[in-house]
Amino acid sequence: MTQEISIKKNSNGKIGAVMVLGAGVAGIQASLDLADMGYKVYLVENKPSIGGAMAQLDKTFPTNDCAMCLLSPKLVDTARHPNIEIITNADLHKLDGEAGNFTAIIDKRPRYIDEEKCTGCGTCTNNCPVRNIAHFEDVDELGKVHLSQEDQQVIEQILAGHESERAAVISVLQDINARYRYLPEDILRHTAKALDIPLSRVYSIATFYNSFSLVPRGKYVVRVCMGTACHVKGGYQILQALERMLKIASGGTTEDNLFSLEEVRCLGCCGLAPVITVNEDLYGSVKQAKLPKILERYQDESVVAESTVGGTE
Amino acid sequence: MIVQPEGIFYQMLTVENIPNLVEEHLVKGRPVDKLMYVPSKGKPPIPKLSDIAFFSKQRLVVLKNRGLIDPEKIDEYIARDGYQALAKALTSMDSEQVIEQVKGSGLRGRGGAGFSTGLKWELTRKSSGNGKYIICNADEGDPGAFMDRSIIESDPHSVLEGMVIGAYAIGAAEGCIYIREEYPLATKRLHIAIDQAREYGLLGEDILGSGFSFDITVHRGAGAFVCGEETSLIGSLQGQTPEPRIRPPFPAQSGLWGKPTNINNVETWANIPTIINRGAEWFASIGTESSKGTKVFSVVGKVNNTGLVEVPMGMTMREIVFDIGGGIPGGKKFKAVQTGGPSGGCIPESLVDLPIDYERLMEVGSIMGSGGLIVMDEETCMVDVARYFLDFLRSESCGKCTTCREGIAAMHDIVADICNGKGEPENIGLLEELAEAIKDASLCALGGTAPNPVLSTLRYFRDEYDAHIKDKKCPAGVCRALISYRIDPEKCKGCMLCGKHCPEKAIGGEPKGPQTIDLEKCIKCGVCRESCKFEAVLIE
Fold first, then answer.
1. Per residue in B370-397, pLDDT tens?
2. Does A278 touch chain B (CB under 8 A)?
3. Structure confidence at residue A138 (pLDDT)
4. What is the CA radius of gyration of chain A?
5. With contacts defined as CB-CB under 8 Å, which chain A residues touch B188?
6. Please, which pLDDT band fits residue A142 given cuts at 50, 70 and 90?
7. Which CATH architecture has domain B74-283?
8. Labelling B54: which of A110, A258, B97, B180 has CA 20 to 30 A away?
9. Touching check for B447 and chain A: CB below 8 Å?
10. Does A199 touch chain B (CB under 8 A)?
11. What letter would DSSP give residue A11?
12. Facing residues of A262 across strands?
C-alpha cells in the first residue's frame, strides 16, 4: 500500500506538518514536542511497533533508571495525541520538495489485520500454530556447524572437563584457544549450543579478552611486553624492530604462518625489562641487535621439522 | 649463592666458578672476594648478605619465606611455622576475635585503594545470607608490578592459609583465586599447593577437626586489565563480559552469584597468617600513623638493583631508590618515580624524601596501587610516559562508559600529537577539561583514575610539555618525531658495528674512520645508539 501525504499550505506558504522518521525514544520525544507546539506530526517507523531500542532495555545508563518507566508514558501519549499520526511497518519511498514544503511517499507493508479494528488483545498470537516467526534470527539456520570428527572429539573432551563448573564458558574458550591457538568459528557455534548460551555472548567474551583471537595464529607467537618498565627501557622500539623484521604489523601473522606478533600488557618480569616471549620461552634484557638471532632459532627449527615430514619448498 | 652459617653471598656465578669456590671457601675456609657483591666500582666487596643495603634495609613479613623454602613442598612451609596461625585461629579464637585482630592490626588492602581489611571482613560477615564467598584477586594487572606473582610462586601456602583464616572469620564456605593467565608457573604452584593442603586436611571438610569446612578453586583470567576491578572480576567469574557495575550494592552485600563476597588481593591475604601469629599490636607497631605494616614494592626501570623489596610503610622514596635500589645506572640523573600503575602518577625528584604511605601518595597526586615503582631517569620523556599510559588505558577500557571509552581516546590523540610535534598551546587546557569529565562521569576506578598519569605529569613536568609544544623539542630524546641521531666524530672509533645493525643501511663511512648517518634514510630506530660501545651516537 502506498500512502501519499500532502497537506494544505499555510498562509505563509509553509506546511504546518512535520514528518518524523524513526519512532525510537528520540523520535517519540520530538513528535510529542512538535505536536504540543501545534504541528501535525507523521511519525514513521520501519518496525511493526514504536519504542525502538529503549523499549527492549531493562535499565538506562548511567543512573540505572527503569527504561520502561521512562518510556511507556511517552508511548501512550504518542498514541493518544490528536496531532500525531503513527505510521508503522513503513518505509520512506520517496521525498520531494524543499524546506517548508515536502511531499513524501511512504510504503506501508501489509499487516494482514485491520488496524482500525484491532484492539491489541493478543488472542491471535496465542492461537497461532506457528511460533517465533521471523522475530529473531535463528542461529541454527544462519550457520550450520561443520566439525570434523577430530574437532568433534576435541571439543567434547574440553566440554566434559568443565561439566561441573557453573560458568564454564571462559574456561572452555581458554582450552579451545590452547588447543588451536585461536577460536575457530564452527567450534564457537558448537560451544554456544552445548553450553546453551547465545552465540552473541560467546562472541562478546571471545572479543573482549586479549588472549583470544578469532583468526589463526602462527606456530610461534612472539609477544612483546608493553609493561611500564619495559616501555621506559625501550620495549616499543623492540616491537617496531620486530614489525620490520617479520614484515607484519603488531597483531598480524607472517604469510608462512610461522610467527605471530602480539603485544602483552605486562608479563610481570619487570626486573628483566625489556622482555619478549616466543611461545613458552622468555627472553630478558632484549636488545634490537639480538632479535635476528632469537628469531633465527625458530626459523631453523621449522626447516628441520618440515623436512622431516617431507615438506616442499 | 649463600654459604651458611656465615651468610656469605656470592653472585653472578657460572659453572666454571664452582670448583674454585669449593676449593677456596668450603675446603680452605677462605671466602672468595672477587665473586662477592660490589656496591660500585672501586669499593670493597661486601661479603655478608645481611650487610648489603638492598637486603639490610628490608623488613620481610610477606616475603619471609622467599627463596628459603621449596614452594612445591608443604612440609617446608610448615617447618617455617606455616599453618600455625590457622591452627591458632581455629582452636583458640572465634571469628569475631580474628576480625578484631585484623582490624586492630590496621592492615589495609594492598591492591590499591587501601580499604581497611578488617572492616571489609566485618561487613561481609554481618551481611545476611548463607553461602558467602571469598575471593583472592591475583589478576595483577598493573604494568610494572609483580609482587603477587612472586608471592604465589615462592610461598603459595601463605596465601592459602590467609584465605582459610579469612573464610573462618567471615563464615565463607567457598573461595576462588582469580589469577592472570600470563602467570602459568604461579597457577601451577597454586594447584600443587591446594592439592597438598587438601591432603593434609588444611582445606576441605572439617579442617583440623574443627568442624569448619572450606575449599578453594582456581580460575584463570584471559587478559583484561579491567578484571582487577572487583565487580568486573566477579562478572568474569560468572562467565560474563567483565564490565564493572554500579556499587552499591557492594560485593560485601551482593557479590559472586548474588552472595556476600569478600575480595582481597594476594599480598593482603599473605599478611594474615603473620598478624594472627604475632598479634595485631606487633603488626601495628610497624609503619606510619595511618598505614601499618610493610609493603612489597617492585623497584624496576632505570635503577641499578631491580627486584622486589619489602619495607616498612613510611620509608622515603630516596631510601628505596638510592639505598636499596642502588641509584641510577650509568651516572644518569634521576627524574621521577611512577607509582600506582596506570591509575597512579609520577613523583618528581623534589618529592623524593616523601615517606611512602597511602595518604601521602594521594596528596601528591598518585596512589599506592599494587606497589610498582618505576624509576625514570633523564632519558625518560614524561610526555611519552603519559602517552604510554593513555594508550594502555584506551585499549583496556571496557567501553561501558562513554567518558572513559571516548575521553581517554581523545586525550591519547592529543598527547600523541604533542609527542609528534603537532601540539598547540591550547591543548593543555583541553586535556585538563577532558580529565575532569572522565573523572566525574566514569563508573569504576579505571576511568576515575585514568587521567592521573596526565595530570601528575602536567603538574610536575609542565616544562616538558611546553618544550614539546612550543620548541618542538623532546628534552629526554625519546619522541621520535622531534629528535635526530648524529655520530660524534670525536668518539667514533669506526668499528662499524652500528652500520652492521642498521636496518636501513643509513650509516656510512670508512673502516676505522668516523661514521655518519644519512638522515634521509634514518628511521630513528635507535639500534645504532644501543649497539655503540663508545657512546658515540648522540640524540639531538
1. 899 999 999 999 999 999 999 999 999 9
2. no
3. 46
4. 30
5. none
6. low
7. 3-Layer(aba) Sandwich (3.40)
8. B180
9. no
10. no
11. T
12. A223
* Of B56, B59, B50, the residue nearest B285 (C-alpha): B59
CB distance B181 to B220 below 8 Å: yes
Omega before residue B31 within 30° of 0, cis = no
- Strand order from edge to edge, sheet including B334-339: B307-312, B294-301, B372-377, B334-339, B345-348
Cell numbers linked to B158: 601463605
Residue B260: CB atoms within 10 A of its CB come to 27
> CA of A151 to nearest chain B CA: how many angstroms apart?
23
pLDDT at residue A305, rounded to an integer: 43
What is the DSSP secondary structure assignment for residue B250, as one 8-state letter?
P
Return the number of other C-beta atoms located less than 10 Å from residue A150's C-beta. 8
Predicted confidence at residue A117, as pLDDT, reads: 87
Question: Measured between CB atoms, which of A168, A234, A268 is closest to B140?
Answer: A268
**Does the distance separating the beta carbons of B441 and A231 come in below 8 Å?**
no
- Residue A26 forms contact with B (CB below 8 Å): no
How far is it, in rounded angstroms, from Cα B125 to Cα B167?
9
What pLDDT sits at residue A196? Answer: 87
A273 vs B300: CB contact, 8 Å cut-off? yes
Q: Is the ipTM of this complex over 0.95?
A: no
Helix axes B402-419, B462-469, angle to 10 degrees: 60
CB-based contact B301 A208, cutoff 8 Å: no
C-alpha cell at A51: 519504542
- Do B361 and B340 touch, CB atoms closer than 8 A? yes
Q: What is the pLDDT of residues B321-373, one digit of tens each?
A: 999 998 999 889 999 999 998 989 999 999 999 999 999 998 998 888 889 99
Contact B307 A271 (CB under 8 A): yes
Cell numbers representing residue B162 in the block: 590467609
User: Mean pLDDT over residues B207-216, rounded?
Assistant: 93
CATH of the domain spanning B382-469, picked from 1.20.1440.230, 1.10.1240.10, 3.90.550.10, 1.20.1260.10: 1.20.1440.230
Domain residue spans in chain A?
2-127, 142-208, 220-308
Of B319, B340, B336, the residue nearest B445 (C-alpha): B340
Under 8 Å CB pairs connecting chains A and B tally to: 150
pLDDT digits (tens, 9 = 90+) for B488-528: 999 999 899 999 999 999 998 888 888 999 999 999 999 99
Say whether residue B302 is in contact with chain A using an 8 A CB cutoff.
yes
Q: Pick B239's closest partner by Cβ from A167, A231, A268.
A: A167
Question: pLDDT of A90-138, one tens digit each?
Answer: 999 999 988 888 899 999 988 888 878 888 788 887 787 776 554 444 4
Element (H, E) at B75: helix B74-79
* Helix spans in chain A (H): 25-36, 67-80, 123-127, 139-142, 149-161, 169-180, 185-195, 199-208, 228-232, 235-246, 291-308
Question: What DSSP character marks residue B338?
Answer: E
Domain(s) of CATH 3.10.20.600: residues in chain B: 295-328+336-369
- The residue among B290, B117, B269, B85 whose CA lies nearest residue B190 is B269
DSSP code of residue B14: -
Domain A220-308 has CATH 3.30.565.10: no
B484-539 maps to which CATH number? 3.30.70.20
Query: Cβ A228–B220 below 8 Å, yes or no?
Result: no
Ramachandran quadrant class, B254 (left: phi over 0; alpha: psi -120 to 50; beta: rest): beta
pTM over 0.90: no
Whether A209 and B149 lie within 8 Å, measured CB to CB: no
Query: Cβ of B443 and A204 within 8 Å?
Result: no
**Between chains, do B374 and A228 touch, taking CB under 8 Å as contact?**
yes
**Class of domain A2-127 (CATH, top level):** alpha beta
CATH classification for the domain delimited by B295-328+336-369, as one of 1.20.120.530, 3.90.230.10, 3.10.20.600, 3.40.640.10: 3.10.20.600
